[in-house]
Fold each of these.
Amino acid sequence: MTFPERPVLVFWETTRSCPLACVHCRASAVTERSPAELSTDEAERLWEEIVGFGRPYPTVVLTGGDPLARPDLSELLRSARDRDLNLAVSPAVSSRLTPAVLSEWKRLGVSAISLSLDGATPRTHDAIRGVPGTWATTMQRAREAVAAGLRVQVNTTVMRQNVEELPLFPRQLAAVGVNVWELFFLVPTGRAASIGALSVAEHEAVAQFVYEVSRYPRIVRTVRTVEGPFVRRVLAERRAGLPRTTSELGRKLSDRLARELGPPEGPSQLSPTGTLDGDGILFVGYDGRVTPGGLAPYPLGSVRSDSLPSLYRGHPVLEQIRARRFHGPCGRCPYRRVCGGSRARALAIGTNVLGSDPACLFGQLGVPDLVDAAAPTLAGDTHAESADGGR
């Protein structure tokens, strides 16, 4: 499944201003707003560009920094609603985010919000976020957002500081009414460039863990990954009964998840297809620059000078991404149609957005022949992608 005509999601980095100091911040956010940000009028024109994709319109995700740093946010939400755009907001959890704000967003047509939770304990999360008390506030805001009638998604960036806590998250999220969990596989960009990445084997262990979590739909209805598309290869392997690589971390995560949640409830609920940076995903920076994704800062153009639909549909790099014309193991992999590798990690580590994903096990093993056995499984799979786009 590819998305040649329109993306599923358009992310707009409303600002880079943010009151938090997260150690892994993609945007290297600062406290002050930049004069280079899109103005209110330019943001209105961005809505028109997104409408220009035609129906069904892409979902617009307002991210940052912290969108609440913009005094015109309510005005922009209202004008987007008037254009019948589907809206989601990814705010920073700070004193700006109040129950009154959440209720107003619901009235203004926001359908969902995403909150970041990077530790299953206050100590871990607050250390990563750089502000004491953020863990407790995040859990409280999640409850309040659910009560306001918003769909709530929790985002967790997987890193060495929190990876062993992952099995503790599902029950915590369920306790506050959250049943959508998105795991971000760390890409060394922005402040995250200084954080030690997981090894290839550890990335594989987390992908296998995601598969296991997806077998508990009553606790976590939807689990997805960002910059970890190889989880779809794991799904195909597990469905085909192929042997899987195990590691110490993998066994530890699996055993702890079983202790926390008991035996699996049924088959995996993972989507076998999904989006990829530049294929179903498009990102507009605070200054109007357009890139394949927020973690893949490959310059495509600018909304200040280019047509967004024309960039998405006709840029040669995006056409190659959608055709899966990659270099190295990703270009030869029999799973490239359903996976495609992280374009952001290929760019950040290999300096080539069309290169191979250095976190994938297949790149290390040289794409073993045994994966050909899964081809019939892939060819016969007709499940559709979720509406809000697993990556």
Note: Confidence is low (pLDDT under 50) at residues 368-390.
Amino acid sequence: MIKLLVAFLASFGLSTILMPLIIHFFKKKSAQQTILGYVKNHKDKNGTTTMGGVVFIISTLILAFIFIEYDTVWFTCLCVSVFYGILGFLDDYIKVKHKQNLGLRAYQKIVGQAGIAIIFSIFIYFSSQAGNMFVPFSSSSFDIKYFIIPIVIIVMVASTNSVNLLDGLDGLAGSVSFIYLIIFTVITSIIGIDLYNQGETGAIVTNIANINILSMLFLGAILGFLIFNTSKASIFMGDVGSLCLGGYIGASACVLGLELILPILGICFVISALSVILQVAVFKMKRKRIFKMAPFHHHLQLSGLSEPKIVTIYSSITLIIGVLSIIFYLL
């Protein structure tokens, strides 16, 4: 527990120190966000410095080898999040270079996301815990064998896109991700303790312990970033940040066999993704929109809710679902 706290504080301190330097660097490089014209509420955000999410990568990479003894599982998990971050950085770079909001084409981004996911799914398949998936709200698991490959691919593409879609308001994606990872770490700790009490001392217990420390490093980096990202934001995380976080959220669930708990704890990620899917599907079929704008947080904004209020709503929903999930795990 002390090691987790120290890891969190170290990451928070480092990211807080790094953020002003990152803001200064990207301002000097004119790395500014170009806002889409149809998002009228965001006109005053045009020109805000972006790509602040690089702090998640830098801070975590620097501290990971200090706090965690090397192991292929957590290291692969970290690499996956970094590779997704690099994909996001490329998307941001194209936007900044051409001073417009369109970076990589949709198919290019999906191909990149799926490519990383496929490689990661093969690693999961050949790992010591291949195919083991925990039943939500218990420490029991079942073997899904080679079906783990398509499941991991789906989880990774879904998680990265969902966090990316949620990154539309100051502090929204960061706040929800922060609360999600806190709850996720508590639940993995409960599962780890239960397994240990049952006499399990193998790889899964070690993996849980290592991933928990890695999660604390991400949590510290996110909190340090949020100091500069809450309304009105001094810097956006950019796709480099949202894809990195989405990659870690998906990868950490997959390496521990907790794929089924992810959409429960990440209900707000699901809401964001589903609102876009429904909006597009209904519009194509009936030429009607069911939301004023998708993702759903933009619908709420156009309905008159302020950004801080929407962030509070989403964060509260994530926290409530998370606390209820912890209670069910303890029962």
Note: Strands lie at 132-134, 141-143.
Amino acid sequence: MSDLRRILIVDDSRMVRASLGRHLNGVYEIREEENGESAWQTLVLDHSIEAVISDLQMPVLDGFALLERLRGCKLKRLREIPFVLISGDDDMETMDRAERLGVSDFINKGINAAELKARLGNLLQFIDTRQSLEEARTTQTQDPDSGLFTRRYIELQTAQALSHAFRHNTTVSLMIIGFDRYAALVDQLGEHKASEIALRFARQVASKVRREDSLGHFSPGRFVIVSPGTSPESCVVFAERLRRAVAEAAIISGGKRLKLTMSVGVSSVPMDKTTAAGTLIDLAYERMENAVTAGGNCTKCGAIDPTATVPLLNIGQALELLRARRPEVVLQQLGQLGEQLLPLLALMQDELGVNLQLDELHEKLRQRKQAA
């Protein structure tokens, strides 16, 4: 196997391919194809190719179509591969169109060997630098742009929380929150503006989670919360509050109100029978994606129905939730919980000689209970 970096030359002229190949011989390993369609198939299968030099006019699939297919590909490797187009020097219309499609550079068929090697070397150096930066970012605890925890750090936090839960027989729950139709939002507003809106939402969520929880950036338009010691029922209540808040929010961009919704996937141990952090994360992500596919604007949590009545709490459970700073379920059941406390409050009133206005409190609790 050669240690040289591999370049794909795509041109229907054997002479042009041979000429470019001679320029690069000894510095790069060359692979050749005579049309865009065969080049596409080669690029999909051959992961070792690091750059493409392509003619514009070719049979079956021309250079424009090949470039457009690559830049729209779901595979990051192909979407970002350096693409050099062979074109005429004075064809500004062609160059403008290619730039809009995401071309990396232009050359003409008469280019000399030194210039061609320099152009390719600069492109590949740029790719190497970008990959190094991306690899460095994956080892960071926090994303420098958003301030949120990185996905890698969230995976480590999940593993640590599971280890603690198994030792102490407690619960770990995880939520993945995703904006519905996020790709369409990017198309409508552009990647920067869509990301800005998503991060604004994430920062608001960050102000509502506990200190023990970890909020991270999972992927574009997707965020994850790891919540040790929290039941899946409480997570569902919290998720439903977030979901309704987003659906009702007045978000303005470009003078127009955006209609945004989000979906949430919840997983939890011991509810979900797994001991692996990756599996717990995958379950939450799968449920979130299933919610999006089902029409969005909903929460999915395995066997738990978010629309079902939350089981009645006792005083001990309510105090546990309040200590964990999860008042949502407690507020839903404030009426019946308060009535449970009335005998204790009456005793305190008599023993301490204070007026707690229990009659008024009892009436308000009764009204609250009926309204719930």
Note: The first strand starts at residue 5 and ends at 10.
